């Protein structure tokens, strides 16, 4: 699997944790599921970042997202 795709998948997982956290706070319960999803998202992004063939900087992340979107959208 391509590391760009892994990084973007981790970012999507991180974004999916936001509604879960908001929902938990609105209902007055602890955001445990959101916390687990955040940890999973950071682990996926970290794995993709570490195994990327070229050293990546934070400024290259938008370009990575655009490359993955360009492959997905014909």
Please outline what is shown here:
It contains three helices and no strands. It has helices at 3-27, 32-50, 61-72.
C-alpha end-to-end distance: 19 Å
Main structural class: mainly alpha
Helix and strand element order? HHH
Major sheet details: none
Unreliable parts = none
- Look at the structure and give the mean pLDDT: 93
Percent in strands: under 5%
What this model shows, in words?
This protein has about 70 residues and is mainly alpha-helical. α1 packs antiparallel against α2 (about 30-50) and α1 (about 5-25) crosses α3 (about 60-70). It has helices at about 5-25, 30-50, 60-70. The protein has one domain (about 5-70). Helices cover about 75% and strands about 0% of the residues. The radius of gyration is 14 Å and the shape is elongated. Keywords: Membrane, Transmembrane, Transmembrane helix.
Topology summary:
Elements: H1 3-27, H2 32-50, H3 61-72
Helix pairs in contact: 1-2, 1-3
């Amino acid at each position: 699997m391509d590391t760009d795709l892994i990084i973007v998948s981790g970012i999507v997982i991180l974004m999916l944790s936001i509604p879960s956290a908001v929902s938990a706070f609105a209902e007055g319960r602890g955001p445990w599921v959101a916390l687990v999803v955040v940890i999973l998202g950071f682990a996926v992004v970290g794995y993709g970042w570490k195994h990327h063939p070229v050293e990546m900087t934070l400024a290259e992340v938008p370009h990575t997202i655009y490359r993955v979107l360009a492959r997905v959208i014909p």
